[in-house]
Write a structure and sequence with these properties.
Aldehyde Dehydrogenase, Chain A, domain 1; alpha/beta; binds nicotinamide-adenine-dinucleotide; six-stranded mixed sheet; Aldehyde Dehydrogenase, Chain A, domain 2
Length: 503
């Protein structure tokens, strides 16, 4: 059985047919590709063209998760013993291999998730940068030497891996988010069970193959496809010492409840409802460009997406006209075609969530200025396309202004002045990113101090933070150590101290 028998793709980076029982439904446990023990599968279609059936993937059970956890547990002592420098060398090789495979992997990301080819390439590049950065930590992951209270003594601290970790990821960055969890987990000496979203099962399989080809031994990195059943088993298993999760607030809270009784660690990266403030002294052209990039890039499906523009009312119309002008230039279409700038949303549920949010906002008194419907015709295949949508006069406390939509739907909220804009920006339960456009230096520094959000931007788009910066939110957007930077090792490692006498 070969990959091409079960997936309608040719992926020369996965093992060729005949080398072993190769990717049946893309679980990877103890160094072998396998199906679920139950034999159950779920189908996955291309959101840009529903006639393009990508494949049937393992609908894994709790027993599959247990098998993967067992494999990870067995592999952990030897992986820990290898040391950070050698583990870092393996990660360097993974970064090189992923660079070589960029076109194949970007195509898979685009095909299963719906982001444009350019966005998918950007995502692979970001994954490469993060793996490389993490590999370098192999020679930097240090502890400290401290003063001793006694004569002829020394005090030291160092890090130990926490053990087996569960990595549970969403569909919107199906390659970069798994990469920024797997790389620090492995570098630290943890072994891992990765559980990707059922809406993006292929990208993580390609990534696991990269790490395996780079030399990660059997059992160190395992992959279990599926949804709730393997995910909740990972959260509940006493052998899993920590869960790094990215996804919705509701699931994050369920994981927190499941892990709390045994004091397992969690790192939760959750939703967002991000504000971009525009004051009347701002450069409105660059603000409009940043708004369109932040709100409609990746069809608005980013935790840091610009979903609220909070604008000083005196310049609202001048700004909105500029935004509408730019939206008219977006090219909706097949995300894998060069030149497309707006792809579909990921599935029917997401499209319906966008349409419901728009209808509710209009009923609540908002004014629809662009879009608002499913996009069809004009050469589009049957897919989950949503028109880029702008609503103005959105009340700051309405549902649209308070709840995450996760699609190409932008609300514009009026503010009286800087203080009012900050109050509105901070009025939501989330705190992922915050952005301000102004030329007033005092307002810039006041905003940096007053935003209740993790990732802040000034006079630039509210998305696209750099790979070496910590990735985190505030309030209900985040719990636990930030990701991507050296801070992430606070999740994957625990500290030891020793007092050493040499009389
Ligand atoms: P989701 O919460 O529905 O699913 C995320 C993952 O959790 C999936 O792999 C899913 O199968 C798994 N899962 C579902 N139920 C589970 C359970 N009970 N126990 C364990 N695992 C379970 O999220 P999604 O729809 O895939 O992603 C969109 C959400 O992710 C949005 O809210 C978005 O803001 C958020 N997100 C946050 C960040 C960040 O860094 N803060 C980044 C990207 C996406």
């Amino acid at each position: 059985m070969s990959i091409t028998d079960t997936l309608s793709v040719t992926l020369d980076v996965l093992p060729p047919a005949g080398t072993e029982q190769v990717p049946l439904q893309l679980n990877f446990i103890d160094g072998h590709w396998s199906a679920s023990e139950s034999g159950a599968t779920f189908p996955k279609a291309n959101p840009a063209d529903l006639s393009d059936h990508i494949g049937d993937f393992a609908d894994s059970t709790a027993a599959d998760a247990d098998e993967a956890i067992e494999a990870a547990k067995r592999a952990q002592p030897a992986w820990d013993a290898l040391g950070t420098i050698k583990r870092g060398e393996i990660l360097y090789r993974a970064a090189e291999l992923l660079t070589e495979r960029i076109e194949t992997v970007a195509d898979a990301v685009s095909r299963e998730q719906g982001k444009t080819r350019a966005e998918a390439r950007g995502e692979v590049k970001r994954a490469v940068d993060i793996i490389r950065l993490t590999a370098g930590e192999g020679r930097r992951l240090h502890g400290s030497t401290l003063p001793a209270d006694e004569d002829r003594s020394l005090a030291i601290t160092w890090r130990k891996p926490i053990g087996v970790v569960g990595l549970i990821t969403p569909w919107n960055f199906p390659l970069a988010i798994p990469a920024w969890k797997i790389a620090p987990a492995l570098l630290s000496g943890c072994t891992a069970v990765m559980k990707p979203s059922p809406l993006a099962p292929l990208s993580s399989a390609l990534l696991v193959q990269v790490f395996t080809d780079a030399g990660v031994p059997a059992g160190v990195l395992n992959l279990v496809q599926g949804d709730f059943a393997p995910g909740s088993r990972l959260s509940e298993s006493p052998d899993v010492k920590g869960i790094s999760f990215t996804g919705s607030l509701g699931v994050g809270l369920a994981i927190q409840k499941a892990t709390a009784p045994r004091l397992a660690r969690t790192q939760l990266e959750l939703g967002g409802k991000n504000a971009l403030i525009v004051l009347e002294d701002a450069d409105l052209d660059s603000a409009a460009a940043a708004i369109v990039a932040g709100a409609f890039g990746q069809a608005g499906q980013r935790c840091s997406a610009t979903s609220r523009v909070v604008v000083q009312a005196s310049v609202r119309e001048s700004l909105v006209l500029r935004v509408l002008d730019r939206i008219a230039q977006l090219r909706i279409g097949d995300p894998r075609a060069e030149g497309t700038t707006l792809g579909p949303v990921v599935n029917e549920d997401r499209l319906n969530a966008c349409l419901t949010a728009v209808n509710q906002a209009v009923a609540d008194g908002a004014v629809l200025r662009a879009g608002g419907r499913r996009a069809t015709g004009g050469g589009l295949a049957e897919g989950w396309y949503m028109q880029p949508t702008v609503l103005t006069e959105v009340a700051w406390d309405s549902e649209l202004a308070q709840e995450e939509v996760f699609g190409p739907v932008l609300s514009v909220v009026d503010a009286e002045d800087f203080d009012d804009a900050m109050r509105i920006a901070n009025s939501v339960k989330y705190g992922m990113s915050g952005t301000i456009f102004t030329n007033n230096r005092a307002h810039i520094f006041d905003a940096l101090n007053r935003f209740e959000a993790g990732m802040l931007h000034v006079n630039r788009p509210g998305v696209g933070a750099w790979p070496h910066l910590p990735h985190m939110g505030a309030k209900l957007s985040q719990y636990g150590a930030p990701e991507c930077s050296e801070q992430t090792f606070e999740f994957y490692t625990e500290w030891r101290s020793a007092c050493i006498a040499f009389p």
